[in-house]
Amino acid sequence: MKMKTYRIRKPKIVVVGGGTGLPVILKSLRNQSADITAVVTVADDGGSSGEIRESMNMTPPGDLRNVLVALSDMPQLYEDIFQYRFDKSDNYFANHAIGNLIIAAVSEMRGSTYEAIQLLSKMMHVDGHIYPSSERPLTLHAVFKDGTTAVGESSIAVDRKTIDHVFVTNTNDNEQPKAARKVVKAIEEADMIVLGPGSMFTSILPNLVIDEIGDAIINAEGEVVYICNIMTQKGETEHFTDADHVCVLHEHLNSKFVDTVLVNTENVPDDYMDPEIYDEYLVQVEHDFQKLRDEGCRVISTDFLKLRDGGVFHDGDKVVDELFRIVFGARY
């Protein structure tokens, strides 16, 4: 059998998720020689995104805005303007990011958020492809272990109940949610599919529980890599080990589809995190390497930690270095 090599071309890497974790990886990937596709959740219903989504009946722009910036080579001043958020005292515009308003305007002009993101990608010199996971706004539903339910991404963590599973529905009709154009093809052709880092139930799974996307990932020929969160998250993954994260992914798709897990082993200093800024993060995720292997995963554990501004993040450059070792066939 002929061995596959990627060195004669850029590896095709699809990154799936949302929230603040996805841009960290994308920024570092942009500095490497890769053919990047970002698949971004459209189930957010809070903050500026939620208000625009409700008033204009469009897919929420916030996560898409952050991904546009992460993959763009525009000057810092332009980025600062695009990311500027109006002051809380500014009445109608309070808390809205300028980039969200621009995406909303172009979406209205083009009749589609999907088309708006493609146009803005050209304007902002984006290095890669950005697709919303669905072309319609989705509503996220959570079913808790006690049998109760919650509707809407912003309401799921409020009561801090243990989540059994989540699913999505089209917000405006009863049709089955469908993947956006080119998303499935990108996954099928990828050399690697990267999940996370990000909130398990509200950033990663809302993409995977769209049947077409979940099936494409299960059947993907490329390596499926999960970047495990460093900290547990209030109302979502309290008391989770790294293996618990993977088990939830596998249970939702009823398949042991994750090939490799990246796990941070560097300790977060006690009392480092600023609870006033990062109040949703609780304690460092504990390790269960044997259970991860029982789930069929290769485990790569090392220092992926970056501390800044009173918060705990993945070091994008370290993560991407590891991703490239995997995609180029390095042996461990």
From TrEMBL:
Query: Gene Ontology cellular component?
Result: cytoplasm
Keyword set includes Cytoplasm: yes
Q: Which InterPro entries match?
A: CofD (IPR002882), CofD-like_dom_sf (IPR038136), Gluconeogen_factor (IPR010119)
Give the transmembrane region(s): none
Alphabetically ordered keywords of this record: Cytoplasm
One GO biological process term: regulation of cell shape
Top-level taxonomic group: Bacteria
Molecular function in Gene Ontology: LPPG:FO 2-phospho-L-lactate transferase activity
> Principal place where this protein is found?
cytoplasm
Residue ranges of coiled coil: none
Q: Where in the cell is it found?
A: Cytoplasm
Function of the molecule? Required for morphogenesis under gluconeogenic growth conditions.
Q: Which family does the record assign?
A: Belongs to the gluconeogenesis factor family.
Q: By what name is this protein known? A: Putative gluconeogenesis factor
Recall the taxonomic lineage recorded for the source organism: Bacteria, Bacillati, Bacillota, Bacilli, Lactobacillales
